[in-house]
Amino acid sequence: MLATLFLLTVSLNPIQAAPPKKGEKCTKIGQNSGKSSSRLTCAPVTTLRWVANPKAPAIGSIFKPAQWGQKVDVGKLEVRVKAVDLEVGKEICSNNGFNDGCRFVGLKAEVDPESAIRWVAVEIEVENGFAATVEPGSTDYVYYLVTSTNDLVENDIAVVFGNNLADVTLKEGEKALGRVVFAVPQTVKELSALFLIRDQSKKATKDYYFLLGS
């Protein structure tokens, strides 16, 4: 449930001792400062730096992450974030106790409290309106959670679980719900509120940002 997203900390409006200047280094991807024409956003350049917002930033860009449930064209897909599940580890372990982060107690599989990882799932709605067939779980698309320290946690493609986005194939005009899961290291204490999809379906790689909260 959205109300239980205690791991997610929205860090898009930091308190600044003094207004930052364009080109200066910043510390939290997606932070913003100022308003209207003076608005700056902390964006990845060679390093994280304060960058001036475009006059009409595209939805899904770091300057204007897609709101909860908002549709964004990502390569050959139309994508919406539908849900976040912080308790998916229970399902993953129940389905297959040999998954990472699980243990057997007798014949019963459960979440291993001593595991080095915890599982987080993001459910997205994907629609193909642009091609004969699309596989949203293929290597054309990579999915990430962004940590509070700007590191990226890539989706785990090896884990066995239900409603896996990797199992989805869409013909033109079809849509489906699918989940991507992340093995988040226990050393990561906080996640930001950003979900990132990296589109590698074309020569030029492009990143799309979604907010995991309203």
Structure explained in plain terms:
By secondary structure, the protein is mainly beta. It has one helix at residues 88-95; strands at 8-9, 32-33, 40-44, 48-52, 72-74, 77-85, 102-105, 108-111, 117-128, 133-134, 141-147, 152-154, 170-171, 175-185, 191-199, 206-211. The chain has a domain at 67-211: Sandwich (Immunoglobulin-like). It is built from 1 helix and 16 strands. The strands form 5 sheets. Strands 1, 11, 12, 15 and 16 form a 5-stranded mixed beta sheet that branches. It has a 4-stranded antiparallel beta sheet with strand order 5-6-9-14, covered by helices on one side. A hairpin with a 3-residue loop joins β3 (40-44) and β4. The radius of gyration is 18 Å and the shape is globular. It starts with 7 loop residues before the first strand and ends with a strand.
Q: What's the alpha carbon Rg, rounded to whole Å?
A: 18 Å
Q: H/E series, N to C? A: EEEEEEHEEEEEEEEEE
Report the principal-axis shape: globular
Number of helices: 1
Assembly state here?
single chain
Concise synopsis of the structure shown:
The protein is mainly β and 214 residues long. Helix content is 4%, strand content 40%.
Keywords for this entry:
globular, Immunoglobulin-like, 4-stranded antiparallel beta sheet, mainly beta
Question: What topology does this entry show?
Answer:
Elements: E1 8-9, E2 32-33, E3 40-44, E4 48-52, E5 72-74, E6 77-85, H1 88-95, E7 102-105, E8 108-111, E9 117-128, E10 133-134, E11 141-147, E12 152-154, E13 170-171, E14 175-185, E15 191-199, E16 206-211
